[in-house]
Amino acid sequence: MDFKLDIPIIQGGMGIGISLGRLAGNVALCGGMGVISTVNAGYMENDFEENHVEANLRALRREIKKAFEIAKGKGKIAINQMVAVNHYEESVKEAVKAGIDAVISGAGLPLELPKYTKDTPTAAAPIVSSGKAASVIMKSWDRHYGVTPDFIVIEGVKAGGHLGFAREEVIGGTAKPLEYILKEVLEKIEPYRQKYGRDIPVFVAGGIFDGNDMAHFMNLGAAGVQMATRFIATEECDASTEFKDRIVKATSDEVTIVQSPVGLPGRALNEGIIKRLGKGETFPPVRCNDCLKTCPHGIKAPYCISRALIEAVKGNISEGLLFTGENVDRVKSITTVKKLMDELVSEWRKSK
């Protein structure tokens, strides 16, 4: 399918519970792509602990419906689906059944995603952090399903949350810059553009802050950008007021690289559970919902990342994990999605 956004901005998926139907719907209402994070979307359901799979699917259906109702036919609504989670298939199928416009999938190589989206109106988009990853995915999709991505999202090293780079690259500053990765990916996809006779738009993420950044990368060949952290500081964001306020108050020296229990480096604030772990406190998981494939379940994990993210979104900052992008210190106040989108588009158009 030919994929195009009226406003070339994708709001990045943020879990747990940061980007659900309200935020995604309002971004789409402004002409962009709003993204619902599927990971433990049902954390507020009454039966989440006892029946977390059904609770998550039930909440996902509700949040997708809410997003479409808010969007009023404008923009597009997508889900962000991590490969690293268990019940990947169930979540993607549920979203496709609900009429989702796109599935954006990363935290691993989404090699089987076309199995659930092919011959449906739903677009399939992998998240990559290198030209090599993009090449592996496109070769696999072409060989096994006869399709190519409808669009691609590149997440650079300055992104928040889990990162697709080795810890040594992140800490040592040796990870390739986003400009270089964009050039790599554009080169890798060209044969598939020729073979399938259509464009494969590439969106860039990780450190994108304003319309000037948009213009810079779009002049280099990107179709648009994906942004996440700035959307936390909006009235429509699904996070608690306490979470939003803490993001607004964050300084650059509070941003740190953490080692997630799932085995990946991540960018977060040195706050809450991260600060307390640094002081020697321990947080052995008391219960495991088996939500992540790569997590060392039970007492082997230093803490339960799912529960830490849930505490943060609820506003319990002292026990929470606050993922954030590198430029969080530049976020100075809470605004509305419309004002933010208008600002970004105005800056972009002036800088083109």
Structure description:
The chain has 2 domains: 9-240 and 332-351, TIM Barrel, CATH 3.20.20; 245-319, no CATH class. It has helices at residues 21-29, 52-71, 88-97, 114-117, 131-145, 167-172, 178-196, 211-219, 229-232, 241-249, 273-278, 305-314, 337-351, and strands at residues 9-11, 33-37, 76-82, 102-106, 123-128, 152-155, 161-162, 202-205, 224-227, 255-259, 265-269. The protein starts with 8 loop residues before the first strand and ends with a helix. By secondary structure, the protein is of the alpha/beta class. 39% of the residues lie in helices and 14% in strands. The model has no long low-confidence stretch (mean pLDDT 92). Helix 1 (21-29) runs parallel beside helix 2. It has an 8-stranded parallel β-sheet with strand order 1-9-8-6-5-4-3-2. It has a 3-stranded antiparallel β-sheet with strand order 7-11-10.
Query: What is the structural class?
Result: alpha/beta
Strand order of the largest sheet: 1-9-8-6-5-4-3-2
Say what the CATH topology of the largest domain is.
TIM Barrel
What is the number of strand segments? 11
Please name the fourth-level CATH homologous superfamily of the largest domain: Aldolase class I
Q: Estimate nothing, just give the exact number of structural domains.
A: 2
- The percentage helix is 25-40%
Distance between the termini: 27 Å
